[in-house]
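step 4 of 6: structure.
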Amino acid sequence: MPTGAPNVVDKPWVDPSTRSRQRSNYSSLILQFALKDFKIRYTHSVLGYTWSVINPVIFFGLYYIVATNFLAVKIPKYPAFLLLSVVLWNFFFEGSSRGVGSLLGRADVLSKMVMPREVVVYSALLSAGLTFVINLLVLLLLLWATGTEMTSAALFFPFMLANLIALTLGVSLLLAPIYVRFHDIGYLWNIVLQVGFWMTPILYSELNVPERWRWIVWWNPVARILVDSRRCLVYGLYPGMRGFLLTTLYSVGILLIGVFVFRRLQAKVADYL
Amino acid sequence: MVAVIEMENVYKTFQIPHEVHTTLAERVLSILRPMSYERLEALCGVSVTIEQGEFVGLIGRNGSGKSTLLKLMAGLLVPDSGTCRIRGTMCELLELGLGFNPELTVRENVALYASILGYPRSELDSRIEGAIGFADLERFKDVKLKSLSTGMHIRLGFATALQADSDILLLDEILAVGDGEFQEKCIGTFHDQKRRGKTIVLVSHDLTQVETFCDRVILFDQGKVVDSGPPRAIISHYQELLSGGRKKTGSTAG
């Protein structure tokens, strides 16, 4: 048992609700939560972590067969095109669903222990990020196997990833505290994601979208990131600078809104958990 | 004496939505109506000061506001009005079970809580072992928590919180469980904590325990502090309150 009488007199008065910020080792807490989450997810399965690869690979195969044979999609370098899109979309899908549900899902801890509540959102995203990293490795393998040439344009890809992460985090921080109060958000977000899958050029190219529907791609931030990622990674072309800046503005804007809303609502979260 | 917790004129109200839609039509129509809420006034104008080295018991009927007050002290809830302030480090152990994860092992759970409580990194391992040792669970260190009994869960939670070695300890109904041997151990620990100038706030329904341990008892009723003072006097006041309530219901029933 550690010793030493407390010298409370010297310590400053604090508002207990600000206490969480002083006490935890932020980054290690996020990592711990994410790793435990990842571990628990595969705890009763024989194949374990392999599922995080099997899942996207199977869907990639399915989409590939449907798109090339049934829908007669003709896009150059389609395997790389499709796998990249599926991997990016999967991260957005998994990250945002986990992130939006994270506060409610961790109600057991959050209603009993004082800790920075955003930690739970970050770790949900990190846990989805672990799957994402594995999937990206599979993607690199496919790019290499199909002999896709990398150009200096590929250097833009990390920026696209940063945008995607900012966007996913922004959505999660924005919706997670609202979800605690209104469970409708869960159903709503589920629908948004399902509609989003078809309204985002994942299986098809943005060029397949008729002119008068193009605004859907234009205003959909995930679509913008997908289109530019394919340009720079699969086709070796630079993204348009204006478009790229606009995408960045978009993602960072949503992130800032998310941070703002989360800060405003987080104090009240425990009332509804 | 030096105050370590100060709460002044604290109000806390919960809004609980009414959910009485018996038919499908009602359910559909209820979307159009604004939701109606029950206002539950958990605390109305509570002022409490707790001083360093005190061992304070909070007693009262279910729903009298004592657990809410503890959560406000911990900073889990924010008051609607009034001020709360504390000084020194604090550790809370609220409600049974602590929110441990049943799918993780004993050691993993303690390690996770150690991170939340912010143990210093250099002492992390020794304190984790210390907590497991105090709870007498070395044998089950690498066993998933779900295979342990409820009593063991609570022992582990208490042991983990103790290892935080904070200036103030908030405890909600944790002593009622645990076998005789462990309770003995807890008593020893409390004396030790007291000697070292630590402050403990305890919510309990076990009046014998409250009388044995506490220097001061605060009695709550309907979200207000009714009485505060030495254990014996306050406990008998509480018993009067309880029997008074019983008489009333008895007379209406009879």
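step 5 of 6: annotate
 - DSSP finds eight helices and nine strands in chain B.
 - The first strand of chain B starts at residue 3 and ends at 17.
step 6 of 6: archive
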